[in-house]
Amino acid sequence: MQRWLSLSESPIDETALVGLRPDSSTSGAVLCFSGVVRNNERERPIEGIDYEAFHAMAEHQFRLLLDEVEARWPVESIRLVHRLGRVPAGETSLWVEIRSPHRGEALAALAWLIDRMKQRVPIWKHPYP
Amino acid sequence: MQRWLSLSESPIDETALVGLRPDSSTSGAVLCFSGVVRNNERERPIEGIDYEAFHAMAEHQFRLLLDEVEARWPVESIRLVHRLGRVPAGETSLWVEIRSPHRGEALAALAWLIDRMKQRVPIWKHPYP
Amino acid sequence: MTVGVQFWSYFASVTGTRCAEFEVPGGSVVGELLEAVYQRFPSLAPFRSSTLIAIHLDYAAEADLLPEGAQVSLFPPVQGG
Amino acid sequence: MTVGVQFWSYFASVTGTRCAEFEVPGGSVVGELLEAVYQRFPSLAPFRSSTLIAIHLDYAAEADLLPEGAQVSLFPPVQGG
After folding, report:
1. Most CB contacts within 10 A, which of A52, B102, B122, D50?
2. Chain A contacts of B41, Cβ < 8 Å?
3. In angstroms, what separates the C-alpha of B73 from chain A's closest C-alpha?
4. CA-closest candidate to residue C10, choices B126, A25, B6
5. Minimal Cα–Cα distance from D75 to chain A, Å?
6. Binary contact (D78, A118; C-beta < 8 A)
7. Chain B residue with the nearest C-alpha to that of A37
8. How many Å lie between the alpha carbon of C60 and the closest alpha carbon of chain B?
C-alpha cells in the first residue's frame, strides 16, 4: 500500500492534490474525504478552529492506523493531510484519499480510519474567537 | 439540496470540478467518489469500456434517486457526472460529490446512491477491444 | 393501437434492430406486448427473466396497462459506474 | 529516577504548565506517577477518568511499568478531523 502523510499548518490545496493523484488502472475506486471547519460549534457561531497536535505522536499513531488499514483491506494507496494551527470556517482541516480495486473496501476503510483517528491521534480542537 | 447532474462524452476534469466546489461553511463533510475504468474485466485485460446510455431515462432515473437521497439524508449538495462513450482504462467514468453537515450521512448516502444507480440507471458497459 | 419498442445494449444485437413497432389491442398490458415481441424475436425470449421494462422513462411491470401511444424500452440489467 | 511529563490541550491550562519533572522510585508504574502528578497538580485529578496517557509516542495504561528516562504525556480525549 502506498502512503503519503502530511501534518502541516499550510492550507490544504485540494485541487493540487487531485491533480497529483498517481495514475493507476488497477484501482477502480478513489474515495476522497474533506473535513471542512464549520462556522458553528455546538450551535454557537465560531470564526474557526485552532488545531493543536502532539506532532510526533500524531504521525506515529496515524502510521499505526495506516498499518491496520493495510492489514484489513486491499487498499492500493492512502494519502492523508491534516492541517494544524488556525483554520478558518469553510476551509478544509482533513483530507483523505483512498484508492482500492472496488468501492466497498474504500468506503469501509475510510469510515474506520476517521473513526479511529478521532479516538487515537493526539490532535485537539480549540474554537476561536 | 443543491444538485448538479451531467451525462457527457467529455472526459471528467476532476481538478476543475474540485476547484468549482461551491463554498459552504455549514457542511462539515465533503465526500467524493471517482469510479475509474480498470484495465481488466473479469480478469481479462481490456483497453477500456464503451458506455452506452438510454440518455433521457438515465437522467430521469438519476433525478429520482437524488430525490430519494434528499428525502432520506440531510445532504446539502450532490454533484454527479457520468461519462459516456469510450473511456480508456485509467480514466474516470463516474464522479460523485456529496456535501453534508457530518460524514456519516455523506458515507451512507454515497453508498446507497451508487448501489441504486447500478440497479436503476440505464447505462451499460461494453468493454473493448 | 401501435406501440413502439426500443431495444438497448445487447438486446439490439439479439433482435438485430434498435426499434420495432407492434400492433396490440387497446387495453393490453405489458405482458401481452412481450408475447408479441417474443413471437417476432424468439431469440430474445430466453432473456425474459432478467429483462427490464420501461414505459417512456419509468420502469414498468408486465401487469401494467399500456397507455395510448406508449414507447416501451426493453433492456438487460444495467451496469453504470 | 526522573520522569518528564508533558501536558497537552487544556491540561496545560489546568496545571499552568506544559511540562514538569517528577522523581519516582525505579520500578514504578504509570499509576504511581499519576499519584505524584495529582499531588502537585490537584486541579488535574478530576479529569483522571478521561485522561489519556502516552509513554513516548505510544498509549500506555496505569499498570504499565515506567521505563528508565520515560517521557510521559497526559492529555484529554483527542478530537482530530
Report:
1. B122
2. none
3. 17
4. B126
5. 8
6. yes
7. B28
8. 12
**Alpha-carbon gap, residue B32 to B94, rounded angstroms:** 10
Task: Give the residue from chain B lying closest to C18, CA to CA.
Answer: B54
Q: Read off the pLDDT of residues A44-87 as tens digits, 9 standing for 90 and up.
A: 899 999 999 999 999 999 999 999 999 999 999 999 999 999 99
CA nearest C71 in B: which residue? B57
User: Considering only alpha carbons, which residue of chain B is nearest residue A90?
Assistant: B25
Q: Enter the C-alpha cell of residue B36.
A: 475509474
Which among A87, A83, A81 has a CA at the least distance from the CA of A50? A87
pLDDT tens-digit readout, D3-25:
999 999 999 999 999 999 999 99
Helix (H), strand (E), coil (C) string for D21-69:
EEECCCCCEHHHHHHHHHHHCHHHHHHHHHCEEEECCEECCCCCECCCC
Q: Which CATH number fits domain B2-128: 1.10.3720.10, 3.90.1170.40, 3.40.50.720, 3.40.190.10?
A: 3.90.1170.40
Q: Which residue has the cell 482530530?
A: D80
CATH number of residue D66's parent domain: 3.10.20.30
For residue D40, give its domain range: 2-75
Q: Are strands A2-8 and A77-83 parallel, antiparallel or unpaired?
A: parallel
Which three-class secondary structure string do you get for B22-71? CCCCCCCEEEEEEEECCCEECCEECCEEEEEECHHHHHHHHHHHHHHHHH
Task: Let me know if chains A and B touch, i.e. at least 3 Cβ pairs under 8 angstroms.
Answer: yes
Q: Alpha helix (H) ranges present in chain C?
A: 10-15, 30-40
Residues of C in contact with B54 (CB under 8 A): 6, 8, 54, 73, 75
Query: Which neighbouring-strand residues pair with A81?
Result: A6, A95
> Are B122 and B61 within 8 A, CB to CB?
yes
Q: How far is CA A60 from the centre of its chain?
A: 15
Count Cβ–Cβ pairs < 8 Å, chain A vs chain D: 55
**Cβ <8 Å between B36 and A15:** no
